[in-house]
Design a protein that fits this description.
Blueprint: H1 2-27, H2 34-60, H3 67-72, H4 79-85, H5 90-111, H6 117-141, H7 166-195, H8 200-231, H9 242-267, H10 271-294, H11 307-331, E1 340-341, H12 346-377, H13 387-407, H14 421-443, H15 448-470, H16 477-502, E2 504-510, E3 515-518, E4 521-532, E5 537-545, E6 550-551, E7 554-558, E8 563-567, E9 569-571, E10 576-585, E11 591-599, H17 602-619, H18 622-629, H19 652-656, H20 659-663, E12 673-674
Antiparallel strand pairs: 1-12, 2-11, 3-4, 4-5, 5-6, 5-7, 7-8, 9-10, 10-11
Helix pairs in contact: 1-2, 1-6, 2-4, 2-5, 2-6, 5-6, 5-7, 6-7, 6-11, 7-8, 7-10, 8-9, 8-17, 9-10, 9-12, 10-11, 12-13, 13-15, 14-15, 15-16, 16-17
């Protein structure tokens, strides 16, 4: 009965989500219903939490009468993997997605209480309708509560051995939090478009939610990369797999969105473009769900291959995105941006930033969907797009983006005096020299790719570091968050360049007692022994380097599923990773062994974590609390976002603008550009 209670709770959540969608939009025109909106958001979260908790309990007690538990668990599975097995396959993972959507909806209902009725109702109403669609999909095609009674199996089929890892515990929840978080930005954009007012106050309310969603998605992608690196035994950190791309595309759109929101808030420009990016970011999240859950593209990460589920997700995508774009098509032509800027300016820099990110997004989208289009056009002929295609187009674009990122600290709104670029140019020369030398020290040879990546990374860090020092007495958390995020991009760029160019590997046949040398390090196969885990047996090898470092790669056999998994032995370091994976056992007692030396690979994930930390730090800026504490100032000015108050004050850097030009009260530069309108 407990399982049925959980199922009933999710069905009730479906009805509450529908009520929230309807009441939310009704409250936008009739404030009497406003108090009910927040109550419905809380009820929806409570019901979803009950349903999810019931499913977790079924895994913990090994209730194999539940089909989903029987297919993805086993009584020998450690308890922590039983919990994570709840979202280890399609049905439970989508229930987690919906639960996280409920958390976001509830958080918005609390954090946006000062929004006027018109906006508050439309934002939460839109989120309620989205979750209604998700719940309808779950209950119609993917219920995790189905029973196998009366013939319940005595034992479960076990969780996929590939998923019996810490990565499953943390990666999907964080990734989904980022995915679903873009629904908030989407809902704010829809609410603003319906009201016909895409103003600076709308951007200020959207920015914190968008930053947090982007930060979660950044960490989720980084953890997925790290998981693949140590678990699959390949030693790579990114493979341009369709499902990897499915999470990366909304990240690119979200990155463009958070920069575009800054222009809309500070200068009132890029309004319609910003709204379109908000729609695109969430649309790409839904597209990712379609790719993962439809089976239309082959991937090691795919959850399901059921065409019925794919069609449902595709229909949901068409309704949600099509409706938003229809509203956009009606409202966008009436929204004009009149902000002016002259020559080199921060507006121009952010416009170029957006253009590069959108071109990169289009490039990745084309490479991801091309196999599907090719198969449809050729009557079933299959093809694939590999890493060379993506690297040829994406890498140069990111290098150009890095150049503009290095100029970000010196750029000013409206106009930037050219004199401010002098120090940046000197730092560029210094970075170029270090870029030529550092790769030689790390790899012992000159590689163009590594030199360019290191030079660009150092240039970004030097310019941002100098700007922090210059503003040391007047910095804000928002400014520091931006700086840390940009430095994180530089760190990741350096790690990618160096590890891509200077990683070395060797595949050898080794028996106990044999030694091999790679990159000046000697590895000795010291021992091999059989060990037993909770639900597997493994051959564990011990390798010792000439400097005394021990590595323990394993070859595990999971008898329930009769699968063999490779567990790499890794000696992690800030400068380099030593990486060993066991291949197949040979008839004479020797083993196939792959040994890799990967310099600066940890910098890739360190950079991602810094970017995410910077995004969250910016949200904690006290100016956003002042935004919610001051009321009424914008109401007199006629904004529907009136109760948000006057909004965040400009940061110290924004107040000072171009210091010399403003102190001398130079005449304004002639306007040579306008913000784009869509």
């Amino acid at each position: 009965m407990i399982v049925e209670f959980g199922h009933f709770s999710v069905v009730a959540a479906l009805l509450v989500a529908l009520a929230l969608g309807v009441v939310g939009h009704v409250s936008a025109v009739n404030s009497v219903w406003r108090s009910l909106v927040a109550t419905l958001a809380s009820c929806q979260l409570l019901l979803l939490a009950i349903g999810f908790a019931v499913l977790v309990r079924a895994f913990l007690v090994s209730d194999f009468s539940v089909a989903y538990v029987a297919e993805n668990s086993n009584s020998l599975l450690p308890w922590y993997y039983r919990v994570s097995a709840t979202w280890g396959a399609h049905e439970g993972s989508f229930l987690l997605w919906i639960l996280i959507m409920g958390v976001w909806t509830w958080a918005v209902s609390l954090g946006c209480r000062r929004l006027p009725d018109e906006i508050f109702g439309r934002v939460l109403g839109t989120m309620g309708l989205l979750n209604f669609g998700f719940l309808l999909f779950l209950l119609s095609t993917s219920s995790p509560f189905e029973r196998l009674l009366p013939a319940a199996p005595p034992e479960g089929a076990d969780l996929n051995p590939l998923l019996q890892d810490f990565g499953l515990i943390v990666h999907p929840p964080l990734l989904y939090t980022g995915y679903v978080g873009f629904a908030v930005a989407f809902s704010f954009a829809v609410a603003a478009l319906i009201g016909g007012r895409l103003d600076a106050a709308w951007a200020r309310w959207s920015r914190p939610w968008t930053n947090v969603a982007w930060a979660f998605l950044t960490v989720g992608i980084a953890l997925g990369s790290w998981w693949a690196y140590y678990e699959l035994g390949w030693g790579g950190w990114w493979f341009w797999d369709p499902v990897e791309n499915a999470s990366f595309m909304p990240w690119l759109a979200g990155t463009a969105l958070i920069h575009s929101l800054a222009v809309t808030e500070k200068r009132g420009a890029f309004k319609s473009w910003t709204a379109l990016l908000a729609i695109a970011a969430f649309s790409l999240s839904l597209l990712g769900a379609f790719i993962v859950r439809s089976g239309v593209l082959t991937s090691v990460h795919a959850f399901a291959v059921d065409p019925e589920r794919g069609l449902f997700v595709l229909a949901l995508l068409a309704i949600a995105v099509g409706g938003a774009l229809a509203i956009y098509g009606v409202r966008a032509p009436t929204i004009m941006s009149r902000a002016r800027y002259g020559g080199f300016s921060r507006e121009l820099l952010l416009l170029v930033n957006n253009a590069i990110l959108v071109v990169a997004l289009a490039f990745v989208l084309h490479g991801t969907l091309y196999p599907l289009a090719h198969e449809a056009m050729t009557g079933g002929e299959k093809t694939s797009v590999g890493a060379p295609y993506f690297n040829r187009g994406f890498v140069p674009l990111m290098c150009v983006l890095a150049c503009f990122l290095a100029l970000a600290p010196v750029a000013r709104w409206k106009r930037t005096p050219l004199s401010l670029l002098k120090n940046s140019g000197l730092m560029c020369v210094a970075a170029l020299c270090m870029g030529l030398v550092l790769p030689l020290v790390l790899g012992g040879a000159f590689k163009v790719g590594a030199a360019v990546a290191v030079a660009l990374g150092i240039w970004i860090m030097l310019v941002h570091g100098a700007d922090v020092w210059r503003r040391r007495n007047s910095t804000t958390r928002g400014y520091l968050g931006m700086t840390i995020a940009h430095i994180g991009f530089a760190v990741a760029l350096m790690g990618i360049g160096v590890t891509s160019e200077f990683s070395r590997e060797v595949d050898v046949r080794m028996a106990v007692g044999d030694s091999v040398e790679l990159n000046g390090v000697t590895y000795r196969f010291a021992a091999l022994r059989r060990i037993e885990g909770p639900n597997y047996v493994a051959d564990r090898a011990e390798f010792v380097t000439d400097s005394g470092v021990h590595l323990y790669p394993e070859k595990r056999h999971y008898p329930v599923r009769d699968q063999v998994m490779t567990e790499a032995g890794i000696a992690a370091g800030f400068v380099r990773d030593l990486y060993i994976a066991l291949g197949s056992a040979l008839p004479d007692g020797a083993w196939g062994v792959r040994i890799q030396d990967k310099p600066m690979v940890r910098w890739v994930w360190l950079g991602a974590l810094l970017m995410a930390f910077g995004g969250v730090l910016a949200v904690t800026d006290p100016r956003y609390r002042r935004l919610r504490a001051t009321d009424g100032l914008r109401e007199a000015r006629g904004s529907p976002w009136a109760t948000s108050g006057a909004g965040p004050e400009p940061s110290a850097g924004e107040r000072e603008g171009a210091p010399l030009a403003r102190r001398k009260r130079e005449p304004k530069a002639p306007a040579v550009g306008h913000s784009p309108t869509t």
